[in-house]
Write a structure and sequence with these properties.
With 139 residues, this protein is of the alpha+beta class. The protein is built from three helices and eight strands, in the order E-H-E-E-E-H-E-H-E-E-E. Strands 2-3-4-1-5-8-7-6 form an eight-stranded mixed β-sheet. Strand 3 and strand 4 (54-61) form a beta hairpin. The two termini are 27 Å apart.
């Protein structure tokens, strides 16, 4: 049986100052941002830094009621979630639900880069917020 998880899509880091975080990664690691986007539905701005076939996703809130703003207020800057690539986000959610996982998203929704995404609650994944990421055919 083939694993549902194809590879790590990204590791998301919540930051207060996106430009300062980008500058740090550029200065310290000679890293380059390959994609920037604001995801209005999630209330975040992101910058993606390519690492092999995955990304470091730097996230900052664009409004006070966003999940990332609440995370920063409660826990401060740091690791926010891990995104895993899956072939079929709908099927992955159904499998997780059948296994008793607590889902944040009952159905996939649009994410950045034209992806479809869904989140799994950390209470059933050993304290780690998990994002399932299905890439579109044109990404």
């Amino acid at each position: 049986m083939e694993s549902m998880l194809r590879e790590i899509d990204h590791v998301a880091i919540a930051v207060n100052d996106l430009d300062a975080a980008i500058a740090w990664y550029e200065d310290v690691f000679d890293a380059t941002v390959v994609h920037r986007e604001t995801v209005e539905s999630d209330g975040v701005a992101e910058a993606l830094i390519k690492v092999a076939e995955s990304y470091i996703q730097l996230l900052t809130p664009t409004r006070d009621d966003s999940p990332v703003a609440k995370y920063l207020a409660k826990r401060g800057e740091g690791l926010h979630h891990v995104g895993y690539r899956v072939s079929d986000c709908t099927a992955a959610l159904a499998s997780l639900k059948a296994a008793g996982s607590r889902l944040i998203d009952e159905a996939p929704r649009p994410g950045s880069r034209g992806t479809m995404v869904a989140f799994v609650h950390p209470s059933t994944s050993f304290g780690t917020l998990i994002e399932l990421v299905q890439e579109s055919n044109n990404v």
